[in-house]
Specification:
The complex is a heterodimer. Chain A is mostly helical. Chain A is built from 4 helices and no strands. Chain A starts with a helix and ends with a helix. The chains are: A mainly alpha, B alpha/beta.
Chain lengths: 81, 275
């Protein structure tokens, strides 16, 4: 695993910054210390403009729902009568 | 050329597991999720941001990003459908496929549920593992106990588009407010005109002065959790990104149902008389 990514993972797990790999690039260590995410993203050449939406605003199943309501209504009426 | 027996054997061995890596790098991934990812033949990854993508890509030597299925102006319905097809293809070739999502793989995620269902329908072994979602982070960061007043969750556009009965004495949490009102499923930035309509819908239930939270969980140790307090009528002018969630605290007080209370007291007396 890339050393910087490993360092972020370890910090996420609760490790202290002093316990990180000593061979970690000094610029990277400084960026981690100063929370400079953009520098790290650039240095790692990580993909930018990530889209994180994985649910549609309106799903295909939505269209099916209105058909079910009148059936339920008919059942209620037949029970009532 | 593959024989029928070979195809059948591959079909038996192909399987799918949908996992979630949590919200924050390293902090939320469970031991079983990590083991499942490491034991896969191929891993598909859906990430929340750049560093999360970089981290997921390092968890296995064969990680395929699902980002390539998004495109400007393309309906996300097509994107999700293509993601499901991509995930299922190696399953059909007999591979153990893991689809790793940020957060919980089954909470406000479309392709995971569809991929598991389709894999099962085709006779493959498919399952989903639970994980830490943005909802879990939200409860911790905002100090909300959903059991205190109750808590309702809706996808924002669905909430706007359909007649919903909401309880203003409970929390209302609206997901994906950035895409509020986007019926084309193509929008990747917030639109103040649609957010004005959302505000109108909310003002049917709440005062425009009611204070709400725009929440974004930290996805790594370099970030701070963002909690922006705004009034409902300030939502259209507020900064809302893809990861933002709208949290609306209770507006009215809980109203006691005297009739049910009397019935419960009567039932209690009956119970005492029996004893």
């Amino acid at each position: 695993m890339n050393k910087t990514i490993k360092a972020l993972e370890q910090l996420g797990e609760g490790a202290s910054i002093n316990s990180l790999d000593e061979s970690l690039d000094k610029d990277m260590l400084e960026a981690i210390n100063s929370n400079d995410e953009s520098f790290i993203i650039d240095k790692l050449n990580a993909r930018k403009d990530i889209v994180c939406m994985i649910v549609p605003a309106k799903d295909d199943e939505d269209e099916k729902q209105p058909e079910e309501e009148p059936v339920e209504e008919q059942e209620k009426q037949s029970i009532a009568s | 050329m593959e024989t029928t027996a070979l195809r059948s054997k591959k079909k038996m061995t192909g399987r799918l597991t949908c996992v979630g890596a949590g919200i924050s790098i390293g902090a939320h991934i469970s031991p079983i999720t990590r083991t499942t990812i490491q034991s896969a033949d191929i891993v598909f990854a859906a990430s929340s941001d750049s560093l999360f993508e970089a981290w997921l890509s390092e968890l296995h030597p064969n990680v395929k990003s699902l980002q390539k299925y998004y495109a400007s102006g393309k309906s996300r319905k097509s994107t999700y459908s293509e993601m499901v097809d991509a995930i299922l293809e190696p399953v059909r070739s007999g591979k153990h496929v893991v689809a790793a999502f940020y957060g919980h793989p089954g909470v406000f995620v479309n392709p995971s549920h569809k991929a598991v269902q389709r894999a099962k329908n085709e006779g493959f072994d498919a399952k989903m593992l639970p994980a830490i979602s943005a909802e879990d982070c939200l409860y911790a960061d905002l100090g909300i106990d959903p059991g205190k007043y109750g808590c309702q969750h809706f996808e924002t556009t669905q909430f706007m588009l359909y007649h919903r009965t909401i309880d203003t004495s409970a929390y209302l949490i609206l997901w994906q407010p950035m895409a509020a009102g986007d019926l084309t499923h193509t929008q990747l930035t917030s639109n103040s005109h649609y957010l004005e309509v959302l505000t109108e819908v909310l003002e049917d239930f709440y005062s425009g002065e009611h204070v709400v939270f725009l929440y974004k969980a930290a996805t790594n140790v370099l970030q701070q959790t963002k909690i922006n307090e705004v009034r409902i009528n300030e939502i259209p002018a507020s900064e809302i990104c893809m990861q933002t969630t709208l949290v609306i605290p209770p507006y009215t007080t809980l109203k006691l149902n005297e009739k049910i209370k009397a019935k419960l007291e009567s039932a209690r007396k009956k119970e005492i008389n029996i004893i």
